[in-house]
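Design job #97: recover the sequence.
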């Protein structure tokens, strides 16, 4: 009897436990799956049709190595019709093209799915098979991962790239595309490097002008072979990236702050900006053979140099006109690989007419960079031509001396974000950098 009583107590406890679990499950899943699915569909439909001016769609066709982002403006109507507008060099020949004659719907397939279920020439251009059977590998059906009035996050059903919908701020589509193009040029017009600060992590992001960020560890050389790729799309107020920059944080939207000169994620607070410009100077300009040019107006002796050269050429070249073509540092890409050079380049036309004659004078130098300073030292003429010009026009030495010394790299006021376009070297004088120098020594 005692044993029987024990069993009855145990059975009673188990029953009470199962009853408690059942009540927990009821509170957790208080609605049948079919009802929850229907509510998710209705919510997505209501959100998508809530923006009369339409949605900015940062569209990413796929995750291939060549993938990048494209702008569209999409307007969802409650009657099931949809209007899609795009302007890009891939599918619309840089013309604004709109198709308002197709339909859309939200349906259920293990979660809400946005589908453009009849042909839209703007959107389906990405999914057409093309002559090779693959085409541009784009999607026209998307899993709806998030749907709020501020943001809709989509994932391509077939190719798995993330795309983002945000309310359009300017209902004029021409003005929208113009603003997005302006943002692209301002942020990436000189193909600059960006420092991403995300929590305790830092990394370099570069090559944004191509539509794909490449990444590198902070302070390291930029090795494209080792880089990870992050497709990027410029918008009217910042950028959208398809993939996140870490395992734990997956920010997609970065808004541009023109006062601070940075892109910031409202989700996590991650920031993209020029970062430490001295480290950037080393990683971008001296380790990767890209070079830079100095605005010669900042060097006092240049005007006198040009005047003397002009007098010399007038005496020897039939009244030729002389102008300065470029002046700056250029790391050799060929025969002087691994070294650094200062390049002074100027040109003239005989009698002010005909083909311009170009003179290139070069000096070997050392460039060292730390977190606080950029030092240019050990400058020596590189060839006989340079020595000859130095002998005949000693003022050249004062031009070279002006870039020898220790400098601090600082952003200019014109573009705090794109340091490759607007960086200054501040030493005894401020030397403005005008951009990447493509001249090869």
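Job complete. Output follows.
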């Amino acid at each position: 009897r005692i044993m029987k009583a024990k069993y009855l107590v145990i059975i009673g406890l188990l029953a009470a436990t199962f009853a408690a679990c059942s009540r927990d499950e009821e509170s957790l899943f208080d609605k049948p799956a079919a009802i929850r699915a229907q509510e998710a569909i209705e919510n997505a439909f209501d959100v998508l049709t809530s923006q009369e001016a339409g949605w900015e769609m940062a569209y990413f066709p796929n995750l291939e190595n060549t993938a990048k982002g494209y702008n569209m403006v999409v307007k969802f109507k409650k009657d099931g019709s949809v209007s899609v507008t795009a302007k890009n060099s891939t599918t619309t020949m840089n013309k604004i093209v709109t198709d308002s004659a197709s339909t859309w719907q939200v349906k259920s397939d293990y979660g809400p799915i946005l589908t453009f279920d009849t042909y839209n020439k703007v959107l389906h251009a990405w999914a057409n098979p093309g002559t090779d059977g693959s085409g541009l590998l784009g999607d026209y059906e998307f899993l709806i991962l998030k749907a709020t009035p501020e943001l809709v996050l989509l994932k391509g059903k077939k190719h798995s790239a993330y795309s983002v919908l945000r309310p359009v701020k300017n209902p004029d589509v021409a003005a929208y595309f113009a603003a997005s193009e302006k943002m692209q040029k301002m942020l990436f017009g000189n193909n600059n490097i960006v420092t991403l600060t995300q929590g305790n992590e830092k990394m370099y992001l570069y090559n944004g002008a191509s539509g794909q960020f490449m990444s590198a560890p902070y302070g390291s050389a930029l090795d494209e072979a080792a880089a990870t790729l992050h497709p990027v799309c410029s918008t009217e107020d910042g950028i959208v990236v398809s993939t996140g920059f870490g395992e734990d944080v997956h920010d997609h939207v970065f808004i541009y702050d023109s006062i601070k000169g940075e892109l910031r994620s409202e989700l996590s607070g991650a920031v993209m900006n020029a970062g430490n410009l001295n480290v950037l100077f080393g990683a971008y300009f001296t380790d990767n053979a890209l070079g830079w040019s100095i605005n010669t107006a900042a060097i006092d002796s240049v005007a006198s140099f040009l005047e003397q050269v002009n007098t010399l050429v007038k005496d020897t070249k039939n009244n030729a006109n002389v102008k300065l073509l470029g002046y700056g540092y250029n790391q050799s890409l060929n025969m002087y690989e691994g070294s650094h050079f200062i390049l002074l380049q100027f040109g003239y036309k005989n009698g002010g007419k005909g083909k311009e004659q170009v003179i290139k004078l070069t000096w070997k130098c050392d460039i060292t960079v730390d977190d606080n300073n950029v030092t240019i030292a050990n400058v020596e003429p590189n060839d006989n031509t340079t020595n000859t010009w130095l002998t005949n026009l000693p003022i050249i030495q004062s031009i070279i001396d002006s870039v020898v010394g220790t400098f601090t790299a600082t952003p200019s006021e014109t573009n705090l974000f794109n340091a490759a376009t607007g960086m200054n070297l501040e030493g005894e004088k401020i030397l403005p950098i005008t951009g990447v120098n493509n001249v090869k020594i």
